[in-house]
Amino acid sequence: MADTRYVCSVDIGGTKIASAIMEYPADGSRPYPVYSAEIPTNPSEGGEVVYSRIEGAIREALASDPDRKVIGVGVAAAGVVDPKTGSIAYANEIMPGWSGIELGPRLREALGMPVAVVGDVQAHGLGEAHWGVGRDRYSVLCLGIGTGIGGAYVEDGRVMRGFHGAAGHMGHIESTSAQGIPCACGRSGHLESVSSGTSIGRMFEERYGRVDESRPTVGRDVNDLCRQGDERAISVIHEAGFALGASLGSLANILDPEVIVLSGGVIHQGPDWRSETWKTSVAEGYASQALDPLLETPILIGELEGDAPLIGAAEHLLASL
Ligand SMILES: [Zn+2]
Questions:
Q1: Label partner for 107 (CA 20 to 30 A): which of 89, 157, 224, 272?
Q2: Does domain 5-127+307-320 have CATH number 3.50.50.60?
């Protein structure tokens, strides 16, 4: 029997930095945190300040129990992570000065232990594939649907990262339903512009006005109306779900995953899988594009939620040793 192992995990997002010490039990069962902490990212203070905060959070985690021998640090980072170096190759305006931070090399140097950095969405996919709803499956296509849409494809335990580290931007593929609608990335006609939580709120507001006059309409408002049988909300949710399903069908035609896993804010809080309208619309969209041998591919709901990137980052570290 193997020994109990410990990995330090960090998940860096635009809002918070989560850190943990994950214990991998000797019996091979699912890893769990024996230490966890969370601090605000405050990204407006710039990349250097954020970097110091991350290093501090890791040192604190490592010091939480000096008797635990930690093998290394797995980092899930917002932005595009260069697979060759672990540096941040690109980050959007949500994290100013984050692009160019040599995250992996600097942490390795500062901590004197193995450090592996992977994109946060890719880490999420790794988490679900190894220990979530995708465990024991050969390949998993994981999509996170929240404010935006991101994804990851994991085959035989390894996540597809791409040459630049940018693989998995599933929100930014062309969608017929999004024709002419501007996307957050600066292009137009992308899936994210019709199927994200933000887009569901925006589409409703453009057509029918605000649900609550005092604030912008969000996906959750539309979902609530949809459940009450509101025809306007049903049509918007149908459109968003169908577009997502059609893109899933196209992606399945390329990747042929054993299972598709959906996760993120829209799934767990907003127009979620329990909404029959959305579920049926996703299935209809999928069936409209997927090839015959792929029609039965299960579409499942992620089960790790916020823990997925931490677990995935730890798995990435273990795979890199
Ligand atoms: Zn886009």
A1: 157
A2: no
